[in-house]
């Protein structure tokens, strides 16, 4: 089993590249079924979702779609402000469009909850969410539960496959869980 040490934390491989590929294909299959006669707009939430989004979009090769990127934050330092701040705002018109938000991980759901409300306010015909990881026991906003989930996870800190530790380790081909219990996120 592969492992990584970062600062005082030890991470062990949790999802292999093969398991991730299987999860991505299952999500893509459901999206292909749901959007086969539509032209959805995929809104990828940076920074963490870029790896999942790239694999997912390639797996949708028979779906005519558009892809755009946004970067949002609801944190000031290590505390949530409760408000969504658009660092890189949405560039596409979403009015009367079927929008799929692509996230790396959904835990409390604050970002997804506010982003869905924002997109609906802009006139999106529908808004769904595809997330590589989902922490169901952390969800605080019912409407933020992803429609398409790669894998459920308990309340553990993970890195790799787009997920970072202080900006590093997004490039790992697997997802690693922290193995000492004094760090959660």
Overview in brief:
With 185 residues, the chain is α/β, with parallel strands linked by helices. The chain is built from 3 helices and 10 strands, in the order ββαβαβββαββββ. It has one domain (3-74, 85-178): Rossmann fold (3-Layer(aba) Sandwich).
Question: How would you describe the overall organization of this protein?
Answer:
The chain has 185 residues and is α/β, with parallel strands linked by helices. The protein has one domain: Rossmann fold (3-Layer(aba) Sandwich). It is built from three helices and ten strands; from the N terminus they run ββαβαβββαββββ. It has helices at 17-34, 50-59, 110-121; strands at 3-6, 9-15, 41-46, 66-76, 79-88, 98-106, 126-134, 148-152, 158-159, 175-178. The strands form two sheets. It has a six-stranded mixed β-sheet with strand order 5-4-3-6-7-8, sandwiched between helices. Strands 1-2-10-9 form a four-stranded antiparallel β-sheet. α1 packs across α2. The longest helix is centred in the N-terminal third of the chain and has 18 residues, at 17-34. It starts with a strand and ends in a 7-residue tail after the last strand. The model has no long low-confidence stretch (mean pLDDT 91).
